[in-house]
Design brief:
Blueprint: E1 3-16, E2 19-25, H1 27-32, E3 38-41, E4 52-55, E5 58-60, E6 63-69, H2 73-79, E7 86-93, E8 104-110, H3 114-124, E9 128-134, H4 143-149, E10 153-157, E11 164-165, H5 169-178, E12 181-187, H6 190-203, E13 206-210, E14 226-230, E15 236-240, E16 247-249
Parallel strand pairs: 8-9, 8-12, 9-10, 10-11, 12-13
Antiparallel strand pairs: 1-2, 1-7, 2-6, 3-4, 3-7, 5-6, 13-16, 14-15
Helix pairs in contact: 5-6
This protein binds flavin-adenine dinucleotide (FAD) and FE2/S2 (inorganic) cluster.
Length: 255
Amino acid sequence: MYICSNSMITENRRIAGGVYSMLVKCGDIAGSVRPGQFVSIVCGFPGALLRRPISVCGADGEIIRLVYETRGRGTDWLSQQPEGFELDISGPQGNGFTVSGDGRVLLVGGGLGAAPLLFAAKTLGKRTDAVLGFRGKDQIVLLDEFIDNCGNVALATDDGSAGVHGTVADPLKKTLTAGGYETVLACGPRPMLKAVAEICSAAGIACEVSLEERMACGMGACLVCVCETKHADGSSCMSRVCRDGPVFDSSEVVW
Ligand SMILES: Cc1cc2nc3c(=O)[nH]c(=O)nc-3n(C[C@H](O)[C@H](O)[C@H](O)COP(=O)(O)OP(=O)(O)OC[C@H]3O[C@@H](n4cnc5c(N)ncnc54)[C@H](O)[C@@H]3O)c2cc1C
Ligand code: FES
């Protein structure tokens, strides 16, 4: 079930470069959203037609948190909306991460992919560790909050300006070698997710990935967001990222 509502912005502040953290008061969504689900927002620039999908980064009482980067006209418009402005927002949408069970969980995030994983970290608590990757130190976001909510946090940057030099692949392999994880939950750019899926498959560890595709209806009707997935018998089909995902078992995705 998802809800459309007018929901008030209670905070909208820049936290790094073009990245903003927004708090929105929408009790119905906050009360039912799970990590990995997203909301769709009407952006009010002239000619705007499609809602913009943004993952939920946290929920507390009646408030949801969104962390987003300005990419184009929609997110740029969003960044300019003041406290007290009423957003037309719908959600929670899609299938989220598995956050049941009691085993150790490793979170692997690339760039803004860290946002939904912070929600998972807050839900799962200290039985999570995290491996986070960013382009460089100026693009790092949410790191302190991962440190507060997870056990161990490993950091990598593409340019070596903070943490390990390189992608999340090396710290991920090292962390998995230490063992003890039941599942890996990952969100980030598709090439990163493919690498994470391969590393987890080689290590024999279950992995869920959150995919991003451009969306139109966001409700499973238009098929704009489809990606190829496969069944256990090897046959393939097209799945809707908005409705069947955005979270998939990594072994189902045709990379
Ligand atoms: C399920 C889901 C969850 C998301 N969660 C977040 C989030 O938590 N934080 C965040 O900052 N962004 C998130 N995104 C991406 C966000 O929806 C897009 O950046 C946004 O819609 C761009 O809108 P715009 O009008 O600003 O840019 P546009 O003018 O529409 O596009 C600007 C640029 O962004 C690219 N782009 C647009 N939409 C997407 C998309 N869906 N995936 C990849 N590239 C895209 C375009 O190709 C173009 O290069 C998510 C996307 C999906 C599908
Ligand atoms: S966006 Fe229309 S089916 Fe997914």
